[in-house]
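Q: What does the predicted 3D structure of Acyltransferase family protein look like?
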Amino acid sequence: MALYDRSDLTTAPQHKTAPRPSGGSSPGRGTSTPPGSGRGPSRDPFFDNAKYLIIVLVACGHAWEPLASGSRVISAAYLVLYAFHMPAFALISGYFSRSFDMGPGRVRRLISGVVAPYLVFEIAYTLFYRWGEDDWEYPLSLLDPYYSLWFLVALFVWRITTPLWRTLRHPVAVALGIAVLASMSPETGGDLGLQRALQFLPCFVLGLTLRREHFERLRTRRVRLLTLPVAAGAAVAGYWAAPSFSAVWLYHRSSVTEHDVPAWTGLLITPALLGLAVLLTACFLAWVPRRHTWFTSLGAGTMYGYLLHAFIIKASRYWDWYDASWLHTPFGQLAVTALAVAGMSVLCSAPVRAAFRYVVEPRMEWFFRDGRERGRDGDKDVPREPAASGASSGTA
């Protein structure tokens, strides 16, 4: 089965064993093949379900933010959510990046599926801010990712370093060391939001080391039962911590010294927060449906939802939608949550994907040379390192 290289927010192959790297067409541009049809690989509903549910949590988290200060319950839910939802996305991103090898086709899809949308939406978000805030002097900076675009920068950095991580004996330990050092270094991460890329790096690298059977083990009855007290404990801890604990710790966008604590505390806090994130991610994945559901097909459009929902979230801030007092009642909070779920579902739908594919997944044939051009221009003369005897080109 092919392991697709388009941004993992939009792809998920189906396989019964660990996927092996191979060529293949770009994901998200064809239709899924029903299992057993004999017509090629189909999408794995488990991962599409997981991605859809995570992107819905992203929308809920952004929608809850203005409500959190007035509700301890919402604040607690917000803390629990931010403790794991982006680490979960990073982990799944790593799992679907295992075959990335800097080959021309994969680099092409990385540029068209990550770099191009970053540039387009950085400009679009900036123009939208200027209009919404009536601040036409607001600068455009491609080195300072606006709002949610930090994840595209992180995904690019993670992807291009994948071959390095796959050569290391203990990649997760090395990535954790880098994350800890970044959290202790206030001078790191000014440009391109690199603090987040480095502090979430262990989750991505952990995903690189996983195989399908690891996800299968989470689905046993015993593991599911164990997740219940963990989830209950997280909810209680979130409710207890809500009045005093700042969610900024969970954003991982700055060093620990900016929270008025000594730098050495990063040695303890960063591993603890990442460990909590992995634990809660495991609890979440244990309950993700593995069968086709009404929302499975929406998992193919999570990149669209991620990029487009920012316009709605920012519009709610620019035009003070949350000033309505009824939104801060229990009924209003439920209404906001329902609208976040419904809105994200629409943004992940097939019609929206068809309408915005030209900016989220541009083909960009005009930008790249095809295989014949590369061969004609001398790529075939580039010396290749001899393969070691008995070396395997597959992935675990």
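A (community wiki): The structure tokens above were generated from the sequence. The chain has one domain: 45-371. Residues 45-371 form one domain.
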